[in-house]
Amino acid sequence: MTLYQPEPVEISTRMRPGEWTEESLAALVASYRDELLTMGAPASDIEVVTDHDENGGVSVVATWIKADTESDEAAPGHGAG
């Protein structure tokens, strides 16, 4: 039996101006996506939001939005069909 945690998993960071480039930002986003995939996230459940602030900084939030499907599978009589 595994422990199912339906809460979202989030990886995030903020970088100040001069701490990032477009190339390093793309690499960071890819690494966050890869980390969530390694944790078992389906690609369709991963959302990545980048926010550029007015001072030249950027924040990145990668979220695995976990669907509440484990409870449906565990309960007899529930599901598609």
Walkthrough of the structure:
The chain has 81 residues and is of the alpha+beta class. The chain contains 2 helices and 3 strands. A hairpin with a 5-residue loop joins strand 2 (46-52) and strand 3. The chain is elongated and about 45 Å long. Residues 71-81 have low confidence and may be disordered.
Helix/strand layout:
Elements: E1 9-15, H1 22-38, E2 46-52, E3 58-64, H2 70-74
Antiparallel strand pairs: 1-3, 2-3
Helicity range: 25-40%
Q: Quaternary arrangement of the chains shown?
A: single chain
Q: What is the average of the pLDDT values? A: 85
The share of residues in extended strands comes to 25-35%
Task: State the gist of this model.
The protein has helices spanning 22-38, 70-74, and strands spanning 9-15, 46-52, 58-64. It has 81 residues and is of the alpha+beta class. The radius of gyration is 17 Å and the shape is elongated.
From the structure above, extract its key features.
81 residues; alpha+beta; disordered C terminus
